[in-house]
Amino acid sequence: MYKNILVINLMYIGDLLFTTPLLHVLRKHFAESHISLLADEKNAWVVKYNPNISELIGIDKKGYHNKLPNYIELIRQIRQRKYDLVINLHPNERASAIAAFSGAKEVIGFSTKGLDLMFSKPLKESKDIHQADAYLEVLKAVGINDLSNNGLEIWTNETAQAKAADVWSNAFSKATVIGINTGGSWPTKRWTKQGFAELADNLLDKGYGVAFFGGPMDKADVAEIVSTMKYRSHKLLKIFTGGTTLLEMAALVKKCAALVSGDSGPMHIAVAQKVPIVAMFGPSDPVRYHPYGQQNAVIQSGEKCLGCGEHTCEHHSCMKNITAEQVYEVLIKRLG
């Protein structure tokens, strides 16, 4: 019986949400245990209110904890907590070192080479299944074989819910609203601006509402997209890009009938809110990163270079060859 457990995942929004099925299973098997999650404080909002964790520990990867003395102090603080079990889901040097030097009775999970010698059970990360399932499989190392879960999960607070309800009531009446997220952590993950503009115009022409989402880094792209639209002044077109917190965006996207997006954090937030997705995939692997638990949600072109993993590309044909008509047709099917 593990009474004090630490889970480590210092990666992006999507990766943190991929951790939520594991947290659900952990809590189901260790109902009375103290379960801590160590996460990048910039993205930790998406798990802040998760009832399956007892404590959320933030790390400032690119700021305070990027200085060696502060990083060592964090490890010292982790050691003081005397964990029975540490589960590392992030196989880079920083996360692997925290796990390796945690002082826990048992350390399992993924590790960078060398530090794995200090793990009780270093594990190889499965690359041929969804990333959330790869995380879940780690639990087999501690004898958990019932991995049934509720899929990706996110909880918002009352403040975010109230703000979203107010914003939504002022933005839309009874229209069926389609969310659009244009961003992606790599430029190559993003669909074309022309495609987004054509799709939004088509939806507005058919009587749908359109809500653009995304962070501050997406504002310029969305502004350019909207500037080229025929219906850029339509009363059912609303721009939330860069104007919400992560939790407010989660509460707003829950009100959408569907979300159209590339492989991105907002896409996985919508999945966690049980919103149907239409996802355009190019350089990233849909086997590992598709909308978890949703069938027929991914659109790809027929390019041979699909899943290349490249962050830059001269031709970007994998995304350019997905048309607005294709996306619209799949969307209508997803809406039923």
From TrEMBL:
<keyword id="KW-0472">Membrane</keyword>
<dbReference type="Pfam" id="PF01075">
    <property type="entry name" value="Glyco_transf_9"/>
</dbReference>
<dbReference type="InterPro" id="IPR051199">
    <property type="entry name" value="LPS_LOS_Heptosyltrfase"/>
</dbReference>
<feature type="transmembrane region" description="Helical">
    <location>
        <begin position="6"/>
        <end position="26"/>
    </location>
</feature>
<dbReference type="GO" id="GO:0008713">
    <property type="term" value="F:ADP-heptose-lipopolysaccharide heptosyltransferase activity"/>
</dbReference>
<keyword id="KW-0808">Transferase</keyword>
<keyword id="KW-1133">Transmembrane helix</keyword>
<protein>
    <recommendedName>
        <fullName>lipopolysaccharide heptosyltransferase II</fullName>
        <ecNumber>2.4.99.24</ecNumber>
    </recommendedName>
</protein>
<dbReference type="GO" id="GO:0005829">
    <property type="term" value="C:cytosol"/>
</dbReference>
<keyword id="KW-0812">Transmembrane</keyword>
<dbReference type="InterPro" id="IPR011910">
    <property type="entry name" value="RfaF"/>
</dbReference>
<dbReference type="GO" id="GO:0009244">
    <property type="term" value="P:lipopolysaccharide core region biosynthetic process"/>
</dbReference>
<comment type="similarity">
    <text>Belongs to the glycosyltransferase 9 family.</text>
</comment>
<dbReference type="InterPro" id="IPR002201">
    <property type="entry name" value="Glyco_trans_9"/>
</dbReference>
<keyword id="KW-0328">Glycosyltransferase</keyword>
